[in-house]
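Let us work through a complete example step by step.
Step 1: write down the sequence.
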Amino acid sequence: MPRLAKLDRLLAVLRERIFLPSAVFASLQFRAADNVERGTVRGEDRSGWARVDRDLIWGEPDGYYWFGGQILVPEALAGRTLFGRLHAQFGSVMGRSDPQLLVRIDGRIAQGGDGNHREFRLTDRAVAGQVFDLLIEAGTIEDRRQLGFGVELVTHDRLAEIVYYDLKVPLDVARLLKPDDARRARLLRHINEALDLIDFRPGSPTRFAASLGAARSRADAIYADGDADAMPEIVATGHTHIDVAWLWRVRETRQKMACSMANALALMDEYPDYRFMYNQGVLLDYLDRDYPELFERLSGQVTAGRFEIEGALWLEPDVVIASGESLIRHIVKGSRYHQEKFGVKPRIVWLPDTFGYSAALPQLMALSGLEIFITHKMSWNDTNRMPHEIFFWQGLDGTQVPTYFLTTQRYEYDGINTTYCPDLIPSHVMGTWKRFSQQGLHDELFLVYGHGDGGGGPTRGMLENVRRMERGIPGCPKIRHEPMAPYFERLVARMGRELESFPRWVGELYLEYHRGTLTSVAKTKQNNRRAEQALHVLELLGVMARGQGVAHPQDELERLWEIVMLNQF
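Step 2: predict the structure and record it as tokens.
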């Protein structure tokens, strides 16, 4: 049996051949910005901007910068598929404190940029002497100084990328199977035989491409040898979770949203099978105001059925401290926004990152026409483990709503914590099924994938992984790349037919591990309640005054409620 170390080493060499550096860099200038000047900076004369060199030091808390310049295609790269590669100091945890970049090519927003999204497509067939104009927004969050900045031309070998993932994804499955599992032995044999066909010697691109073609044909045996019909299925949808407020100001959140949505749209241009979901109306509204070009393109993908708008709330609020009035307004404003902007009637309450759930929520959902509640955060616990992941949640008045807990975690992980930001390697898919406690009851599960909080969402590597697991790999659950809503329509329908088959949870969903978030900084909780009470009084006085012929201050009240709801994230 071939050694894993050998296969890993050869695949690492192949990976380096997917994007090849050229040492051709853009000529860039930059300037700092006191505020966001998107409307005017695109036509600005850059002659007064400072020159970017390798010794440039930039970045400060809440900083904002523009980088602009041009990159010329040399004769040696004519006819090649070219990407730009961003050179900046990425690498913070999850990318949440990295610079947030937004790349424009010849005036059009092309993609976001972060530690997980460094390459952006320039052309499928380069022409010698071709010039691309670049304009890059860069926001920095914390005082982590950046040394240098650059954009390099890199060539893209699509065939090398295909063969790499054809072999890498099954290898990641094989390493998780037991040593005496016959499927493991067959996978390793197929992968080894395919890698042996690749001619890694330099000097002849034609010879290398021919050997890749042979390896790709040999890799087909892996997927023909699958046991997918006997495995559970997992529906996967792209997503990015973005905290409206956490370690940064709302201004930075708005840029994180733009960068992440630009990444999603860029990947949709390249991967027709890509399906992506987003849920927070407030950030979609910010995107509409800040980047109407992106919002228009996003809306077009919603119409095409590739970009899914789901999750009924205006944003993802605290649902323990916020009042019933606030929660109703989150539902009403969020649902109305989705219907008015996209013609979509949400049916799902999507709250993966909240630290406990009021027993009033099932009643509010039922009265609002919402069908299912989805979370996962209860798994982040140190005291009790939820006994089930699919059940009916019964509220104070007896109302029951179908409830689903995401079960995604790494296969080799022994704890109970799950995630809603996986990078969708086989370990996460196999772990989703392993963590599910009701395997005898249901064999179709759901997961979302993608880096969150400024990590930029799904990557091309994740989409390549999806394509291989869709084909079926022995020992791994089979993926179906679909929108979220159809999966939960099927689940809700089944739960409605088989009421007695699914357990019931009565009362609040309480999370001990995060209890400090509900008791610390009491002034914040007190101010929230005072704001809610003041708005209640204002609403009452407005109605009373209207009876005396005074116009009701609806717009002013709406503006004040938006502030309160924003701060309830």
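Step 3: interpret the result. The first strand starts at residue 19 and ends at 25.
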